[in-house]
Amino acid sequence: MNRYTVFLIAQLFCCVTYAQVSELVESVFRVDDEPFLPFGIYTEGIYDEEDYLAIADSIVQTDMNTVWIESNAVDEATYQSFYATCAQNELKTMVYLVPHNLFPEDFAYWLNFHKAFDSAIGWDILDDANNFPLSQLVNQSNQTLALDTTRVTYQSMYALGVVESFSEQTELTAMQGYPWGNGSDDLSTAYTRYSLFCDTVKRNGGFPLVNNQLFNWEEETYPSAAHFDCQTYLSLVCGARGIINYTYLDYDQDEPISVTQPELWGQLKQIATEITSAEWKDFILFGDYERVQLSSYVAYATWTLAGETLLITFNGSAVNSELVSIDLSALDVGSKDPVFDYRPDYLDLSETGMLTGSLPPYGVAIYRLEALTSSTLPESSEEEAIRIYPNPTRSFFQITPKGTADKVIVFNTAGVKISIWQLRETSKVDLSNLPSGVYFVEVQNEQNVTLAIDKIVKI
User: Fold this and answer.
1) What are the distances in angstroms from CA 7 to CA 30, 86, 103, 110?
2) Predicted model pTM
3) In whole angstroms, what is the distance from residue 52 CA to residue 29 CA?
């Protein structure tokens, strides 16, 4: 049986629909029409069929949601088994395509083969893109789009100088990071590079990712678990909206790092669980984002969503503890709670809104901040405070308690009135026909008196 026969069989038995699998909508990456924050790992250099099938079995034991694969690493039958495991566990793939200018027939064949599987959510059209002329990236993009427009395109690079022009060619662009054992590169230089990169990609309307370092340079040690933890959260502070780590294979021992680097793999598993949670995704993808650098090694970012704020701060120094002082008075913060109770609570919140303390080397602090005030009735009213939930929502939200609430007015962020909902027979409001984004909701009584105003996120 030749490979073309196998490909036809794959099309017949894999429920191929060629519907829109992934797209970038208003700077939000969507997979199967749901917001998606990719967190995963590269798996290059693995060409044995048995070893390849073990990749999926290993990765599905974590909460990673994305795996980068080469389009022609193994035979078609092995890929079919691999994709079956992916589909059963909702694991998505980013597929690296061979260069069209060198292998046009293989390029088309393997793209069409992988297109038959809905777990494939994007095409990596060029890795190390800064090593190639822009014309090659443009050609690779054009050839990809000629065969498939149902998935996003992706590229990765290291040099900042090409970001402005190159990032316009793909929906997703990743910056490679080598802050461990690479001469003068460390987490302070990574912060500068990532921040400039993410700002540029967002300005161009793209979706920025980071490729964090999960490997060692020749004759060097692997990053420590603490260093990798700091790399990850530094990336998010810089504005990354996804992370695909490099790489799964320990080239020195020709074994996966799940075997050779168990402590590092364990930290990766913990972070995957943290980052791919639905609550976290909503803050990173939809929250109002601000970033502040406090010193060479310390920075923080906040994402504010529906009256709550996620704050991440880190110390990128390998040797020194660093004092942290963050003024949160403008956010009117009433309380701070560690997002993960097993992580150390390094910082204290004062009554004046100052978040202060000391972060150890590679220390990371992650907090959820709640405002002192929320959407309530006017002070003169004795009615119970109105609550709007769920928030974020995919379709409906509800007003409770309904009380004297008579109508809900929905505005966009420009203050333009979108719709008015009467609440005489229901307490639900339907946003399903609106695009994803941030809206403002005003609740009024029959006398047109405002009872509450709140922000809501449609995902």
Assistant:
1) 27, 18, 19, 9
2) 0.82
3) 28
